[in-house]
Amino acid sequence: MPIHVVEKDVTDERGTLLAFLAAQRGGVRRALLGLTAEQAASVPSASEMSLHGLLKHVIQAETGWIEWAKGNAPKSFEETTERWQQGWRPTEEETVEALLARWDEAAAATERFIRSVDLESTFELPPAPWFPKESSLSMRWLLLHLIEEIARHAGHADIIRETIDGKTAFELVAQEEGEDA
Fold first, then answer.
1. pLDDT, tens only, 140-170
2. Which residue in 17, 67, 87, 127 is deepest, having the highest Cβ count within 10 Å?
3. Rounded CA gap, 149 and 142, in Å?
4. Which domain of life is it from (predicted)?
5. pLDDT tens-digit profile of 59-117?
6. Are 126 and 74 in contact (CB under 8 A)?
7. Would you list the domain boundaries of the chain?
8. Quick check: 14 and 115 in contact, CB under 8 A?
9. 138 φ, ψ to 5°?
């Protein structure tokens, strides 16, 4: 069974990085494949993470970073435990299907933005306790960070999904491609 990590015939840096980002998004998406709403919302491990909540979090992380890079984020950023926790709790309107559709839009916006900028260009980070004061990052760093962030959570998603029903990433890739696992 084939595992698609990057798109076929990607030969430039930007395209390669975007393909790796898409592959990591695919890992999170596949972890939700065929689950009921109850299964997606379940918390089957010692962590408080559900696949549904993890989906909301990765969408917020991606869109938040892109907004910072565009200069559209608030000039000051105060993170509280409550605000961070809400980023993991979907509302009634934020069904898995609605969030996946939102992520499709966010992913397309990310790709358009990344294709429109020089990877060497920089953006300023908002003040936050975990960033050095008055720091700048390149668009390349941003893209690599998004890959890192979503890949980390794709791993969480694999563990949560396997805990729910025993399905592994390999089986889910086969299921997605209509093959027998």
1. 999 999 999 999 999 999 999 999 999 998 8
2. 17
3. 10
4. Bacteria
5. 999 998 999 899 887 665 566 667 778 889 999 999 999 999 999 999 999 999 999 99
6. yes
7. 13-176
8. yes
9. -85, 160
